[in-house]
Amino acid sequence: xxxxxxxxxxxxxxxxxxxxxxxxxxxxxxxxxxxxxxxxxxxxxxxxxxxxxxxxxxxxxxxxxxxxxxxxxxxxxxxxxxxxxxxxxxxxxxxxxxxxxxxxxxxxxxxxxxxxxxxxxxxxxxxxxxxxxxxxxxxxxxxxxxxxxxxxxxxxxxxxxxxxxxxxxxxxxxxxxxxxxxxxxxxxxxxxxxxxxxxxxxxxxxxxxxxxxxxxxxxxxxxxxxxxxxxxxxxxxxxxxxxxxxxxxxxxxxxxxxxxxxxxxxxxxxxxxxxxxxxxxxxxxxxxxxxxxxxxxxxxxxxxxxxxxxxxxxxxxxxxxxxxxxxxxxxxxxxxxxxxxxxxxxxxxxxxxxxxxxxxxxxxxxxxxxxxxxxxxxxxxxxxxxxxxxxxxxxxxxxxxxxxxxxxxxxxxxxxxxxxxxxxxxxxxxxxxxxxxxxxxxxxxxxxxxxxxxxxxxxxxxxxxxxxxxxxxxxxxxxxxxxxxxxxxxxxxxxxxxxxxxxxxxxxxxxxxxxxxxxxxxxxxxxxxxxxxxxxxxxxxxxxxxxxxxxxxxxxxxxxxxxxxxxxxxxxxxxxxxxxxxxxxxxxxxxxxxxxxxxxxxxxxxxxxxxxxxxxxxxxxxxxxxxxxxxxxxxxxxxxxxxxxxxxxxxxxxxxxxxxxxxxxxxxxxxxxxxxxxxxxxxxxxxxxxxxxxxxxxxxxxxxxxxxxxxxxxxxxxxxxxxxxxxxxxxxxxxxxxxxxxxxxxxxxxxxxxxxxxxxxxxxxxxxxxxxxxxxxxxxxxxxxxxxxxxxxxxxxxxxxxxxxxxxxxxxxxxxxxxxxxxxxxxxxxxxxxxxxxxxxxxxxxxxxxxxxxxxxxxxxxxxxxxxxxxxxxxxxxxxxxxxxxxxxxxxxxxxxxxxxxxxxxxxxxxxxxxxxxxxxxxxxxxxx
Length: 929
Prior knowledge:
Number of strands: 47
Largest sheet: 22 strands, antiparallel, barrel
Helix content: 10-25%
Shape: globular
Structural class: mainly beta
Strand content: over 45%
Distance between the termini: 67 Å
Radius of gyration: 30 Å
């Protein structure tokens, strides 16, 4: 089956490429150049260029284009298109087809970080470099699992350009360069000083922001100094400030009058020995009068007291203040020897808030009520003393220091560069949470014994009904909570030596070579408050909160070499090889990777290119070193579903609460993991149609084997059910005593069967493993056109497009290959488009840009919803030779998420879409010299 799928997808790729090539041949006035560096319109391609290093190779070369496509975002692009951060700029890349958690995921593990997901493979599958060097990972693992670089703490003021290589590059850079490489290149040799002030707000309310940037530098006869500082502050936005997501009545799948709220004031009892439910209220009151005690709660149509605005108590944008600084200096000695130093520092303080806390009582017996108490109580912002009282504080500090020497050797034929660097990222989280014992005693009182009625033992309590149905005051709330502290650090120390130059001349030109030696140490330490550990048995457990801790280190040594060989005047070959040696506790020992590429230029304005690369990725350190942690998730209990004669593959059969419910799970890392191996290939062309127009198109394919992932809950419970029942879904016999069955059943703990329980899942264990296969393929296309008129000014047009042809996964060998691209439970975009129109005339500059994200499955999994289109604009006026003012609008049309009438879960749209709406900014820049 796998071979058949591969041949089919190859056919799709071939047909698509042939169609494009045919269209190019038939339409000579088509359009433009993608480009390896996407030259700006005022700096068109030239045949007289200095040699430069372009991401994807360490060999300096004159040619801007290479065998693998590289997209460039310049500092001017970032400013011209109105982006606030590095992440904002990268988020519009068409290659960014994957989904990542963002500030809407306030219950996630990294709600204050921004991650990239090229090609939909995951946040850790692209290598993030700063000036060609690795930097420290974000100290908290993404989704509590994997490590990745946070793009939110890199100062936009200091950026010269961002180069994005799409495809595998482990043979050049080592681990993680699977889906691509993002190289953030900072400014150097800057002369002068410029101050920029910008302020903005949202037209829907909240989110005021301000940014101050200073970039400057001095250049002497034998020295240079570049410096930059940036301060950005931003106000939080709560979901309650958006009327389309501030209530459960915004659920588009039901009439607002029929909406169901979260039950917030409920004291339900279970009659002893019967299992029947009833509701208890204070003496002389009913549901309506009791509900009226709380201003935020309302009486539902079903007769219970609910909180329609409960989920809107969370933030949808964090409040933060970020201060970053950058320093880069060089000093030239005699004999072409130069010393350099680079320092980047960042300080970020943020406040985030998930929905307000709730309390659900443990099952307990009250002799006065003569019932088993089963209750849930949600707390409102007014009880806490305001919505800010629930906020979590996150404080981040980071620095990156590099020093080195560079020069010439061997009769000035070779450049060399020796660099030593150290980067460190520190983070502290302070989160208010209930103390379990204290809040239990506040409502239940002390335990006075243990009752064993007809079905199990329960603590005996004296439930305080009046206290339960009386709103808290802020002082009482403060007496019931504590601060949960998490401290995390990550760091990387590395040394490298790079030698590059021309070895000798062939008839078609010189043979270029680059060699590198590297040594690095990476480590992290994640220390959670011990009270949220699943194994904590001390006197102050935290209510309803678990965390993930861990820590470890690894050493890495690498040697690599790369050659650029001009076979003919029109054909150039590139080859590279690298060996990485790992020293850690895993089974990873060493990894060799290689790559090759061809550039064929039949004419001066047309190039056909292709590349093939092997790649590898060492297991993320938190996949290896994670300590036991806990989490809650909703599962489909396939064993009980099939046991009761239902079919889990039939929609609706097992979707009820009896079979689909929330369970507690634990997770820990594995030292048995091996490296992930991959292969990637690209093929395409670049065509300079005219001097002012360029077109490029590249097809890509990336295949991973042994990709690390946690065992999916659905797979685990499917196999456990087959082992317990003796047959799989298709009726084939399964040996319940086999080694694999013993393994699967040992991971799931069930309650057993008694008067209350029906063998439900009590908890289960998850851990990472090397997945069998993950594969994706698609097409990238770029078009650029420059029109220079005498009277109307200069116009620049740009258009980019990425279309995913295939995204497939096979979890274990022998499993069916799942089509994730079209799967109705998979929320990656199949296509993305971006565009830009820029117009400059005299002292005025106008820019109109935007992007389109393709369709996604609807929430009901019955079809797909429409595309998402956003338009942005900016106008700039040069007042004097030194002063410039600008005005920008992001999301000009104030568009929100595409409509999905089936999305019945808050926030009622997929999290990739922004609920912020239109933002407006005004800026002022002044150049001092």
